[in-house]
Amino acid sequence: MNIVYINHYAGTPALGMEFRPYYLAREWVRSGHRVQMLAASYSHVRARQPEVGDKPKGETVDGIAYRWYPTRGYQGNGLGRVRNIWEFLGQVWRDTARIVRDVKPDVVIASSTYPMDIWVARRMARKAKAKLVFEVHDLWPLSPIELSGMSPKHPFARLCFKAESDAYRDADVVVSMLPVVHTYMASRGLDLDKLAIVPNGISPDDWAAKPQPLREDVAGTLATARTVGETVVGYAGSMGEPNALDTLLDAAALLRDDPAGRKLRFVLVGDGHLRAHLKDRVRNEGLTNVRMLAPIPKLQVPAMLAQVDIAYIGWQRVPIYRFGIAPNKLMDYMMAGRAVLHSVEAGNDPVAEAGCGVTVAPQDARAVADGLLKLAQLAPAARAVMGERGRAFVLARHTYPVLAKRFLDALK
């Protein structure tokens, strides 16, 4: 098939996330399909941006044809981001006739996190007489309403609501990463026969190869912790409000003053808009048991996690998670065979399903501290058994060869 994949934030191994579009597309290309990826030249989630002038630019990455549309940068979620969205969608809209002529798509996928790309994808699919797929990352406008306090009457929320309604009505297939969305989507008009659940996952290729050597500061920090007999609590990923790292630092403060917790070493690797705030906390509160390090390339993550005893992932206590969660970093933790401390209240819990760690209440520093102590006091062999259960769970359900096939099977 010829597949057009519209994802504003699509990344590559060289540029950074979002990785899901790349991994799915790579599997489809390996299966003999042709994929045209349409993405914006600027995305806040990428580590680097592609080099694009004032006109769209084509690039082939591992057999995937990328087309980058020039858009201006932005910070935060204000008017700059809205302008960036419309710059991208407007250019794809104007490019539709050429794409239909040159690519001859059989499938058009709208997958840009925000739902307004459904209008561009619908127009393209109708012109090409192709199947229309709406891929759901987050529920908009419900996510900005519940997470950021946006009013349901805000013009942007109303726009998202209209786009979501159109998507559920007009798409031939709806693919959701979130697993517990059936009741909500039915209430918004979706025929549930159209719905397929395809969560996030990992690429076995990233784990089959020898891990890239760790950057010197990360390798040194982990080696020192091992030399002095510390139990390493690791975090690798974005440093934003949804990741509940303030709660982790609160737990580190409790454990610093707890005789049972003094042998725990917290190593946080990543970047994000709260990084400076977290670094200030570490310095001002004298959290000598915490080390914060700059982000590492994705291909170094397996080497880092191999040196971690307990991997932390936390969430805010917000109602939106009742529809389920599909975190990339948790897949990495489980694939690395790490015991996981999961601080969450959600519609699903992969850690509990796999039996690969301990789940505690979200945004509760005492609960996180107690959970970490529980895992730290286990014998290393017992943590290893937990980790292997997580790895087996991911290999059975969450590898991209499996997920890419499930995605295309939904089109049948």
UniProtKB/TrEMBL annotation:
It holds the Pfam family Glyco_trans_4_4. Residues 16-201 form the Glycosyltransferase subfamily 4-like N-terminal domain. One of its GO terms (molecular function) is glycosyltransferase activity. InterPro entries: Glyco_trans_4-like_N. SUPFAM superfamilies: UDP-Glycosyltransferase/glycogen phosphorylase. Gene3D superfamilies: Glycogen Phosphorylase B. PANTHER family: GLYCOSYLTRANSFERASE (PTHR12526), GLYCOSYLTRANSFERASE (GROUP I) (PTHR12526:SF622). This is Glycosyltransferase family 4 protein. It comes from Scleromatobacter humisilvae. The lineage of its organism: Bacteria, Pseudomonadati, Pseudomonadota, Betaproteobacteria, Burkholderiales.
